[in-house]
């Protein structure tokens, strides 16, 4: 088995370019925190997202869950693929303090997760409606107990939907079942839901994401605290702005600072993403 692992690592390393990006995300199982790391690069067949590692961050007695611990964890496995931290050109991940600090330690830009920013914006938007949402949540909890009774199970297969603090979309699903109680709020979240789903689709570029968020800001200006191009939560706004201009065919409008951000990528030819001509009833599809 060890020989197979080494053979796979060698094959992956040979297929990777010298410079690449990393897509990172973490999850916790019981008391163990895991870090998933994907190599992101362009190949002759299109974009590639190669899983490099999904392992606990805490491996040595002195390891920690801070940015230094994340950097050490990544530095440990990259040599198996013939690479090092110096070969990483950018990071993609949540806009959390650890990831921002990690990007600073590595000296690379962080492309913040657009879905994460949208989640934070909607949570702030829903704050004034918390009392009404809490009442619906209380009703859902009562229905959960009722639905577990055998007599209820015989009448319907439908189950109540509860909110989850870490995923605003669960609020949308809960309101969908009882939208008559909060008609206005439910209607306002329709467009946000379509944007959220589109942001998670394959083949979406930074230009597409920026177009989606900009159009959503026209409808909900209050989302600007998190979704604006220069929002405080963004770690590398100049880098993202530079990439968006390049993808949009506006290279001549790059500022000096934006050009500097793209210097590590000067040998990569960026092409504008083709627009989809198909008509769709969803708000997100109408934008793109």
UniProtKB/TrEMBL annotation:
SUPFAM superfamilies: Ribonuclease H-like (SSF53098)
Superkingdom to which the source organism belongs: Eukaryota
Protein name per Swiss-Prot or TrEMBL: Uncharacterized protein
Protein's organism: Phytophthora nicotianae P1976
Lineage: Eukaryota, Sar, Stramenopiles, Oomycota, Peronosporomycetes
